[in-house]
Amino acid sequence: MEEDYLYHLLEQMTIDEKIGQLLQLATPFFKGSSTKGQITGPMKEMGVTEEVVENAGSVLGASGAKEISNIQKKHLESNRLGIPLLMMSDIVHGFKTIFPIPLAIGCSWDLELARHAAEIAAKEAAVSGIHVTFAPMVDLVRDPRWGRVMESTGEDPYLNGLFAKAQVHGFQGNDLTDTKRVAACVKHFAAYGAVEGGRDYNTVDMSEWQLRESYLPAYKMALDAGCEMVMTAFTTMNGIPASGNRTLMRKILREEWGFDGVVISDWGALKELIPHGVAEDEKEAALKALQSGVDIEMMTLCYTSHLKELVATGEIEEQLIDESVMRILKLKNKLGLFENPLRGANETLEKDIVFSAPHREVARQLATKASVLLKNDDVLPLSQDQKVALIGPFADNHDVLGQWSWLGSKEDAVTLKEGLETQLKSENLNVAKGCDVESRDERESKIALQIAREADVIILALGEHSWMSGEAGSRTNIKLPKAQLNLLNDLKQLNKPIVVVLFNGRPLDLMDVTEKADAILEAWYPGSEAGNALADLLFGNVNPSGKLTMSFPRAVGQIPTYYNHYNTGRPKGAPDAQERYVSQYLDSSNGPLFPFGFGLSYTSFEYKDAHLSSNIMKQNETIRLSVKVENIGEVIGEEVVQFYIRDLTGEVIRPLKELKGFERITLQPGEQKEITFTITEKQLRYYHSDLSYKSDKGKFMAYVGSNSQDVLAVPFQLM
Ligand code: GLC
């Protein structure tokens, strides 16, 4: 439709109909809904009227071509002006074909595969009637106590932004009238990942300098990639919750960044201005949120109940409501809903497209790239003539999809046992649970020890229930449950090689595991093809190549621990450092157990001859960093070559390292490649104390290597 039609439509709308467009309700409220929608928040009995539902603008959590078509058809029969509903759902890492959790996808360092996975998720969602997905989640994370780290791609602003861009392109394509695509909604704006204590929904407070330096870049890269929507965070910034924060939502998002798309509150976040203590009642919450530019209120009724009165009393201009309604109508128009309210919903095609074999093949491929080999004392890869004892609560467990897989089918997920059965003769595979996820089981333990005694090698599948991470899944203790550590100790007494495979949604404290395991494969939640992907890796059909994008601390007491930290005035280990009076712990070393960028392979890569095209760089010039990488092992392997920079002296403190580029390469045994990165002045810019964003002349260090610690260093100067 031409935009004039939308303005004409707006002119015809009553104020109730306008306010209705600003409301999102979950599926069960709508006529034509046969099933409960996905209830992902505190849903109380909300006294909505028939008229409110008939005027509502969008639906939360619907899925299924039949269900969504019924809801839309019924709605259009009763909506006076025939304004179609927007169908929005959380398709975070897959619709029914579930890919690895986003933290795992981040560890693949494969942007094209991440884009492709998002494209597949969009295709499955769109044919099932969905128009908008609440993804990508790009919150920077530095605290593994927070359960939602599983939804992010990690602790680096730049890498998160690249993944955000790839996912937005995958979801949206180039034209949203393409009914195989969905609109994306970047979340949670902003800095939700910085909750104090890693406790979900807790206070967030930081300087605007740190907000802009570390937390905002990925949202901006998602919006620069054309992301259509933004979701507000539950949390505060400078003392004001995002949903009522005019500085964040208007000054930065709309005025400075020029975002004129739709902003939706998170579930109930608009009404939560009251318990936050910045709104006395729903009326004040409505006033503050609308003034902040929040267009859609998800699952509460502050707007519905009070905006009309606020206009009548002159406390707000109806113009503000009109602006929000227009943004929503424009999005509906971009999606082609006025011409085709059912858009891509197609029950026939749905059967062939959703959870198709080609889609599951991509999920398998991504899961092999997303898993990270953390330790391998020559026990992997396994061979098919070995007698394997597969033990642990995740040995034959369907809980491998992660928390944001609500449309995925756990029953259809391939368990580790099922995957191994495709690689081993039955006589070479014995399976026992050994214990439950959180409790000991004497009988199971005895069986496990027995099959372990008869085996050549033990695969010990350990981890967290998927509900132990994800939203509202914070933990103060990030070790594996005691029952599992006890099982590991018992098995260790048998002096058999032990391969630990981990199913978890956060970096864990693995200090008790690394000493006892001969190999550790971090599988995260690998998704629908979990078992097949892990079998590929464990038997060497695929050589592991994943690299961590979030540091694993040595202890929860170290948190936050992240690679791009600052030097402090008393760095431990400095040449002139004193023994005691330095920045250190008395009971632990400072660094992480496994650093950002770390991941092993079944082969080895040697880095040499790192050099710059010039050690002097002028403002308007570029220089090149080159390094030779050789596969010095016996098998083909993929390596993620990483490029970091350090600004040795800034106007403000500067991180010890910042990722500025990477390249995923494949090398045959004995093959060597020269990899080159271009260094630009733009990459040296940062936020100064006055929040100006620019580079300074001075000394820098360029680093290149296989992770954020094992690097070759080459100095240069910006003139
Ligand atoms: C949840 C989450 C958000 C999700 C929304 C809708 O509370 O915070 O990420 O998109 O509700 O399900």
From TrEMBL:
Highest taxon listed in the record's lineage: Bacteria
- In this chain the Fibronectin type III-like domain maps to 639-708
Q: Which GO terms describe its biological process?
A: glucan catabolic process
InterPro entries noted in UniProt = Cellulose_Degrad_GH3, Fn3-like, GH, Glyco_hydro_3_AS, Glyco_hydro_3_C, Glyco_hydro_3_C_sf, Glyco_hydro_3_N, Glyco_hydro_3_N_sf
Pfam family example for this protein?
A: Glyco_hydro_3
A molecular function (GO) term = beta-glucosidase activity
Q: Which NCBIfam families match?
A: PRK15098.1
- The name under which this protein is listed is beta-glucosidase
Q: Source organism lineage? A: Bacteria, Bacillati, Bacillota, Bacilli, Bacillales
